[in-house]
Fold:
Amino acid sequence: MRKFLQNFAYKISRFMAGRYGNDELNRFLNIATLVVLILTFFQRLWPPLGYLYYLGLALLIYSIFRSLSKNRNARLKERAAYLKASNSVKKFFRKIKGFFKIQTRRFKERKTYKYFTCPTCKTTIRVPKGHGKVQISCPKCRTTFVGKT
Structure:
């Protein structure tokens, strides 16, 4: 049995020699296939979900095709396009996360600090509360304006 498994592993490694293999896009396609096929289990609740089976099957076939392909240049171009798109999506969610992080911080510090926006460069400036009318100097553009804390 051990000899058979070693022989089988050797044959698989020889078959895969020169092939593209697995990458981030293939992992995404496999996860998407799994999610789509799980959704097809709920076709009794909404019958059009049954058509997702064909989408899942197409994703699986494309993933296998990419893994077994010997055209490395085409697969690398697909991977680069996927990484570029995923980076832009990550940047978008990073901006949303940053916005909510700032809002959370402003809410926590609402009793001790007041926030002002510079009229020139729109930079947010944090000033301690309880000092009355103060002259605020923007650290970015050096514009001064008056604000009540």
